[in-house]
Amino acid sequence: MPIKTALLLITMFISTAIANANATCNSSYVNVNGATITVLPTGADDTANLKCAFDLGVGIPGVVVQLANGTYITDRIVVDGFVGTLRGAGMDETIIRNPEYPVYVTPDDCELVPPTSLSYAPPYLFVFLGGDYTVTELTVSIVGEEPATDWSIFGIRDWLGHGLHAMGQFTILGSAGGAGYPEANATFDRVKINGQITSDPIFGSNVNNAIIYQGFTAPDFLPIKGKFTIKDSLFEAVASANPPVNVRDSRVSISGNRYRDVQFGAEVGDLTNTVYEFSHNQFSGYEGLHSIDNCLGAASNCGFSSASLVIKNNIFRGTHGIVLDGTFANGTEALVLGNNVAGVSDEAVHLGSGTNHCTVVGAGSGLVIDDGSNNSITGMSKVAGAQGLRIKSFLQLLKRP
Asked: What is d(CA 120, CA 99) in angstroms, rounded to the nearest whole number?
């Protein structure tokens, strides 16, 4: 067959496939133009149109799902293998929010349901499985006192007496990759993520984890690997802004962001052979950064192994600045450099008993509580033996026996 004829047939096949798929979308609101899929808001429930756009986009590498000015209302959307960009018209110009009714969440132990199962219903608005994508120029809001149906994990219902109703905006999970570990590459650039302060007994907000990069699902709790980047973004009134948990062979970069009325700016747990950088951020809330051992199961990471934590040039305002807990093993090191902690009312830096070979360089304001070993503190006052102070992050609270 001549090459020109073959190329023509291939082009016709692709065009026909896209056209057939597009036929299932509402053409009044979803338009395909080459590698750009434009979705317009309906003023009502946009779930079907957004899901249709992502389903189309998964078959077009490098696709742009373009959202317009306006507000989009959506129930949970699961996206598998997306390679491209989700782009709005700008922060506060394009707004995505949850519906007026509570989004259904698996009542108990949703983390034990495989994400590929039709029964998978976690407390998040968007679930991204695998892929390599950028989310940019938009706002995602959670509204309402109880945005999700009653749910519980790790026995919360037993010790609290009832479930929770908070939900997050994005959960990032891996899909099958090399070396047996799930992979995902995710970048969030110029996004606004906000919630509302509520009477929630654990989070104090209707948002639990705003954007979480995680190896946190059954059946095996394997670590996730890839790249996770959040930059030039804004988080408001959320419990935990952007935690990476159970991660290996990865690069995490969280830089140039602003945090307002946020309980935990950065929770980070269980890293193996991973570089984690939290830099040039401005934080206002309860605690700027907290590292922990989460230890989900036999197949997961437990603590920090061959990892590097770089926490530099941030401005922290609130109760606590930087708390490095967890077990630092196999050459794990932390560099805490040039952070402004003048606006912290309690501890500026706390190095837990499992830390070692941490280097803290400051400008003289604030105390460094050093319960670890072989740590170096320069330019700040050091206090040792403060074992009585134990702050629990939300990830630790959720695992309470």
From this structure: 19
Higher local confidence (pLDDT), 2 or 196: 196
Distance (Å, whole) CA 56 – CA 42: 19
d(CA 168, CA 156): 17
Quote the DSSP letter at residue 329.
E
**CA dist., res. 228 & res. 251, Å (int):** 6
CB neighbours of 225 closer than 8 A, spacing ≥ 6?
A: 174, 177, 179, 181, 182, 183, 247, 248, 249, 250
Strands (E), 45-159: 63-67, 70-73, 77-80, 83-87, 94-97, 124-129, 132-141
**For residue range 55-76, what is the model confidence (pLDDT) as tens digits?**
999 989 899 999 999 999 999 9
For 397, the 3-state DSSP assignment is helix
Q: Tell me the β-bridge partners of 285.
A: 262, 318
Per the DSSP assignment, residues forming a β-bridge with 267 are: 290
Residues 6+ apart with CB under 8 A from 56: 18, 21, 22, 25, 30, 32, 37, 63
30-33 and 36-39 beta bridge pairing? antiparallel
Is there a contact between 173 and 186 (Cβ–Cβ < 8 Å)? no
Backbone angles phi, psi at 4, to 5 degrees: -60, -40
> Measured in whole angstroms, how far is the alpha carbon of residue 85 from the centre of its chain?
17
DSSP assignment string, 148-205? B--BBSTTHHHHHSS-B---EEEEEE-BS-GGG--EEEEEEEEEEEE--B---TTTSB
Is 354:372 a contact under the CB 8 Å cutoff? yes
- Identify which of 355, 358, 377, 356 has the alpha carbon closest to the alpha carbon of residue 368: 377
Any idea how long the chain is?
A: 401
282 residue type, one letter: Q
pTM for this prediction:
0.91
Using the 8-state DSSP alphabet, how is residue 7 labeled?
A: H
